[in-house]
Amino acid sequence: MTLLASLPPVRGKYLENAPLGDMTWLRVGGPAEVLFLPADEADLARFLAETPDGIPVHILGAGSNTLVRDGGVPGVVIRLTAPFGKAEAIGDNRLKAGAAALDKKVAQTAAKAGIAGLEFFTGVPGAIGGAIRMNAGCYGTETKDVLVEAVALDRSGRRMIIKPDELGYAYRHSDAPGDWIFVEATFEGTSDDPAAIQQRMDDITARREATQPIREKTSGSTFKNPDPPGTPDQRKAWKLIDQTGWRGKRIGGARFSEQHANFLINDGTATAADLEAVGEGARADIKSATGIDLHWEVRRVGVEKAK
Ligand SMILES: Cc1cc2nc3c(=O)[nH]c(=O)nc-3n(C[C@H](O)[C@H](O)[C@H](O)COP(=O)(O)OP(=O)(O)OC[C@H]3O[C@@H](n4cnc5c(N)ncnc54)[C@H](O)[C@@H]3O)c2cc1C
After folding, report:
1. Per residue in 18-54, is it b (16+ CB within 10 Å) or e — as a string?
2. What are phi and psi of 153, to 5 degrees?
3. Contact at 8 Å (CB) between 220 and 261?
């Protein structure tokens, strides 16, 4: 029996053997056994409630922090659709956004409404669901600082309203159970002049363009820094990669960026295996040279290709 035959009827779409590479920034990897595009939250809740527990379910956001392995992803991959992509100011310096709304759209909506504090989202190329899970942030602000509450569905389709202090937030980390799917969030900032907010967003964009390979096939920071921001003499992943000679060193079409040594780059010909081999090669050399065990910030999903 195919996987599709064991899935419940839905109003959205199922696609079998659906390529995932183009849904990620790294542009590599195999297909989803089944890709599910829910019509709306009720459709997603029904799917979760009626899909047998033994079937693996993975949620993919904008794919800016995900490496899909070459053998693809067994089970169902969910990608939220347009009805989950709205963002609107709701008064009192608050803004409500669907989990598929791009972080940049949330920053722009906040700026137009004169809500300050969400400018950092303009520098993170993901969507809101990924930001809540990863505690995305940059230049001193993180998602946890502006999140009022998030709405999530658990694996049984139960709807929950979650406060940030229930999410065990730390640097680029939440304790949110792996099977929760965020569908919506409310953020709060402070009042300011829209033009001043826009200027700060433009500054963030200019700073990123100058320091990061944001037009390449990359997934941003590959490893978490060993120490969180604010630690005196903070140890940085990019420095360790640099010091062990991995900046620019190639395996197939993969390498760490010459511009920012913690960014993995696909030159257009890399496989997921090439990218992972560069990352693991650097990790092993850093461990033997310094004793530091770097942890992947990039989420690796799926299985290797059978040889
Ligand atoms: C050029 C570049 C620059 C970057 N700069 C930064 C930066 O400055 N700061 C930073 O923090 N990150 C940065 N990143 C990494 C990335 O943009 C963030 O981690 C982002 O929050 C990931 O969001 P996404 O929607 O792309 O998630 P995905 O890559 O699709 O998924 C990431 C994780 O979130 C989970 N997830 C996605 N959606 C949901 C949902 N609705 N509910 C539950 N879980 C979900 C996935 O299952 C996965 O575990 C950068 C990436 C790139 C490519």
Report:
1. bebbebbbbbbbbbbbbbbbbbebebbbbbbeebeee
2. -110, 135
3. no
On whether residue 307 sits in a domain, the answer given is no
Alpha-carbon distance of 124 to 220, in angstroms, equals 9
**Ligand 1 interacting residues, C-beta cut-off 6 A:** 25, 59-66, 99, 123-127, 129-131, 133-134, 136-138, 172, 180-182, 212, 214, 218-220, 299
Work out which ligand 1 atom sits closest to the CA atom of 100. 41
Condensed to tens digits (0 to 9), the pLDDT of residues 169-180 reads 999 999 999 999
Residue linked to tokens 């004793």 = 291
Instruction: Tokens 């050399």: give the residue.
Output: 285
Rounded-to-integer distance, Cα 282 and Cα 276, Å:
10
Structure tokens at 24: 């990620």
Instruction: Quick: pLDDT tens for 277-296.
Output: 999 999 999 999 999 999 99
Alpha-carbon span 79 to 58, nearest angstrom: 9
Euclidean distance between CA atoms 139 and 229, whole angstroms: 10
Average pLDDT of the chain, as a whole number: 97
Residue range 188-236, pLDDT digits in tens = 999 999 999 999 999 999 999 998 888 999 999 999 999 988 899 999 9
Q: What is the DSSP letter of 5?
A: G
Contacts of 76 (CB under 8 A, 6+ apart): 3, 7, 32, 33, 34, 35, 36, 51, 55, 56, 57, 58
**In the numeric block, which tokens belong to residue 276?**
């992972």
* 121-158 confidence digits (pLDDT tens): 999 999 999 999 999 999 999 999 999 999 999 999 99
* CATH code for position 283: 3.90.78.10
Domain shared by 264 and 276, yes or no: yes
Q: Domain with 60 in it: what CATH number?
A: 3.30.43.10
